[in-house]
Amino acid sequence: MMLVPARKNDFFADFLSDPFDAFGSRPQPKQAMPSMMKTDIKETEKAYEFDIDLPGFKKENVHAELQDGYLTIQASTESETEEKSENGTYLRKERFTGSCRRSFYVGEEISEDDIRAKFEDGILRIVVPKKELPAPEDAKKLISIEG
């Protein structure tokens, strides 16, 4: 699947349409806008599993970073469409560059070595293990005061 910017009206379709409808009063069919980085988060007994949809992105353009307890996913893509007439005159030439970024707080006790990630079929799967926090001690530790 390739990401393409959604356009409300097509220039040539408007030009060749009904001349009495020059201002586009006719309702245009709605086009689906691509939703970026749809994420499913599943909690298991030992971990949190993130499934992040990144259709049209290449693995080398997807980056994950852990800093101050935040897991940040960033992805970028570029595409180019070119259509020419038979004599080589451009009728349309479009370029699209896009990026998206999303952060999740996973806790400061998690390190990058704890996290596992895999990118396959346009889905980035990240597994973040649950960490047991040390239990607070009930007994107070008293300091002796000499005097």
From TrEMBL:
Domain (SHSP) ranges: 27-147
Residues that span the membrane, as ranges: none
Domain of life: Bacteria
Signal peptide span: none
CDD domains recorded: ACD_LpsHSP_like
InterPro entries: A-crystallin/Hsp20_dom, HSP20-like_chaperone, Small_HSP
Family affiliation: Belongs to the small heat shock protein (HSP20) family.
Protein name, entry field: SHSP domain-containing protein
Lineage: Bacteria, Bacillati, Actinomycetota, Coriobacteriia, Eggerthellales
